[in-house]
Amino acid sequence: MNIFLRKLFLKNWGLKLFSLLLALILWITLIPPEKMFSEKNLTISLYAQNIPQDKELVKKPPAKIDVTIRAPNRYIDEITSDNVVAELNMENASLFQEDYTLNDSMIRMPAGVRATVIKITPNTVNLKLERSVEIMLEVVPDIIGDPIEGLKIEKIEVDPAQILIRGAESQIKKDYKVKTSPIDISTLMQTTELEADLILPSPDLSFATSLIKVKVTIFIVEEDPGKIPGQKKPRRK
Fold first, then answer.
1. Is 63 exposed, middle or buried (0-12, 13-18, 19+ CB in 10 A)?
2. What structural domains and CATH numbers belong to the chain?
3. Consecutive sets of 10 residues in the chain, 237 residues long: mean pLDDT of each?
4. Is 0.85 topped by the overall pTM?
5. Is 198 helix (H, G, I), strand (E, B) or coil?
6. Which of 3, 78, 109, 235 is deepest in the core (most CB within 10 A)?
């Protein structure tokens, strides 16, 4: 038996080796590249999309997930973490559902690339929705600096005095106020009207209006009508 096997493998071994190499070359040459596949692991971004206008996302899903992609070798180098994303459609999401399953239909590939999603980790994500509410909040000017000597601030008017904001029920507090960007009064010589940006009291809130600036009028009067503004008080001897 051993002699038979030895003859089988060693007899004409050069010709057999040549035949094997020829078959390998023909296999590589004749099989089109699109029929040769590779797998690739990626960490991609996950986006929650189409959140209903009457709902707010108060607990977000993870920003990144891991996927394993299988694609023809001709496409594999075109598939990267920058051009593959996962999109979770929240259009029909419920306030009572917190766990959502991820599947391959949610994975977006580059245009023209054919690939298969082999694995998604995690395959379930947790998030939470709440009802969205709107409320009017007072706008408070953020005044910095002191008036020039001899002048004083008589009053400050803000137009509009209130602004409509939107947020989840649990994230809006009635004692919240919307501040303006800092307004320096240390160089103002007379009553001045200016525009100021609005700053929300929490990053979880948003404006329910396109108005994101207000007019602030600072009324400046002389503290002592007989004194020239900016003149220093005489030193006591």
1. exposed
2. 35-126 (2.170.120.30), 132-222 (2.170.120.40)
3. 52 64 63 71 95 92 96 88 95 92 94 90 95 94 93 94 93 91 94 95 92 94 68 45
4. no
5. strand
6. 109
